[in-house]
Amino acid sequence: MSAKSYQCKMVIIGDSTVGKTTLLNRYVKDTIDLTLQTTIGVSFFHKNVYLQGNTYKLEIYDTAGQERFNSLVPMYYQRSHFCFIVFDLQNLNSFQRVEFWENELKKNTNSDGAVIQRVVVGNKCDKDVSVNEQEVINWCKGRGVHYYRVSALTGEGVNEMFNEILMKYSWQPAEDTSKVGQTIVGDKKKGCC
Length: 193
Ligand SMILES: Nc1nc2c(ncn2[C@@H]2O[C@H](COP(=O)(O)OP(=O)(O)OP(=O)(O)O)[C@@H](O)[C@H]2O)c(=O)[nH]1
Ligand SMILES: [Mg+2]
What we know:
Belongs to the small GTPase superfamily. Rab family. It is a single chain. The chain has helices at residues 20-29, 92-96, 98-107, 133-143, 158-168, and strands spanning 5-13, 42-51, 54-63, 82-88, 117-123, 146-149. By secondary structure, it is of the alpha/beta class. It has a 6-stranded mixed beta sheet with strand order 2-3-1-4-5-6, with helices on both faces. Strand 2 (42-51) and strand 3 (54-63) form a beta hairpin. It starts with a strand and ends in a 25-residue tail after the last helix. Magnesium ion binds next to helix 1.
């Protein structure tokens, strides 16, 4: 079977300081920047991943968690395959805010019937966890949302999370926009595994 290439759009949301940018730096560059500043507006990450003989071209939008940027974020939900809602396992308030972010996502999508896979991410699992994770698991189960615990600082669980969501969950690839050489984009079946 010939190797194929798929395009996948992702967006990452959640309160300020939960570690969204650090998580993407860890995943995309396998490094973290301890002098990192709060994100202003939105920044963009790109990564090619090779899994089971196929290439996945990821476009990932890193959004600002600060309230003053809230109105900017919804435009990045459009045509996304996955939305990561990140909270800080050390900060109960950031988990309580996950519901706010999920509602924002719901309010601003579905006009075209597209399904976004929602992934709740508990970051900073390298520190003493103060959020009750059973509550998180129950919250996610009740809503059909996937849950992962990771540490952007140590890298624990990060690659595993991205690999698993790409391979395990159903997502509809983007339209074919590149058609370069032998690359076939956009014919991945729903329900990939
Ligand atoms: N201990 C620990 N600290 C982390 C981890 N991830 C991020 N941090 C720290 O948390 C702080 C905030 O991280 P950012 O990645 O800037 O947070 P953000 O969610 O992008 O924040 P905004 O851009 O303001 O929305 C930084 O001091 C990071 O070093 C982690 O996994 N463990
Ligand atoms: Mg940031």
